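Hi F.,

I've been meaning to write this up properly since the lab meeting, where we talked about keeping a consistent format for the predictions we share between groups. The idea is simple: the sequence comes first, exactly as it goes in, then the structure tokens exactly as they come out, then a line or two of notes. No screenshots and no reformatting. I'm using this chain as the first example so we have something concrete to point to.
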Amino acid sequence: MSTTLKIISISVVAGLGACLLLFPWHISSPRVIARAVAPNGIELCVVQECNWSTEPFTTSVLYRKPGGAWGWFYYDHEDLYWRKGHTEIDPQQKRITVFRGGKATASFEWETETLVRYWPDVPPRKIRGAQKWMPPGWRLTHSVYTNP
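Output, unedited:
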């Protein structure tokens, strides 16, 4: 085996090893995968945390008015890993749309605080108002299932 091939092989193995070691650290605490701030100051975040089980991730949508408590919406408790998501703000419709892999999966109407969840083969589901309010002091780095 040539020296160049050995160096390339060692580099690939080292890179894969580093990824395997860093991935658990990357998913060990909740992480924001999409975020937007509406013109009226309402902040919306999609947060994912690892379940450390065969249902690997729980994904939640959270929002808050400026200086207010975070409101929580259920998104999925058996979700797969989101590398990232993105949002689009529509000021005329007063809506934030959440995208995953280029597809709209949810929208948030900030005037009515309504989350609309989209699925491929099921009618959209609308939820008006937070399903749960996070306690004072709660932050996006905390699990949605524990108090700070």
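Notes:
Helices lie at 3-27.
Residues 30 and 124 are 26 Å apart (CA to CA).

If this format works for you, I'll send the rest the same way.

G.
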